[in-house]
């Protein structure tokens, strides 16, 4: 009798066949997350919506390397990104509550 090996193949997307301009997009306005020894958990925020993900430290680091490369290339072309929060005064002031 032949032995049968059950092989599972992961169907991964071939990045050379993806047209990024044709993909649906959400506007991401923030991120939150946490980590443990074997997993990173994070959510990307879009208004009141969250898209949650979990991944390995190795994949998370590869994402960080890719993102940092994208930011460096952006800043070379367009200048440094200012991440200082804008100084916006709230329209509701404590003095208005009297």
Overall description:
With 98 residues, the chain is of the alpha+beta class. The protein is built from one helix and three strands; from the N terminus they run βββα. The protein has one helix at residues 57-78; strands at 30-35, 40-46, 49-55. The protein has a three-stranded antiparallel beta sheet with strand order 1-2-3.
Strand order across the biggest sheet?
Answer: 1-2-3
Count every helix, treating DSSP H or I runs of 4 or more residues as helices: 1
Shape: extended
Q: How much is the radius of gyration in Å?
A: 21 Å
Strand content: 15-25%
Architecture blueprint of SSEs:
Layout: E1 30-35, E2 40-46, E3 49-55, H1 57-78
Antiparallel strand pairs: 1-2, 2-3
List keywords for this structure.
alpha+beta, single chain, 22% helix, 3 strands, 98 residues, 1 helix, three-stranded antiparallel sheet, 20% strand
Short description:
Helices cover 22% and strands 20% of the residues. With 98 residues, it is of the alpha+beta class.
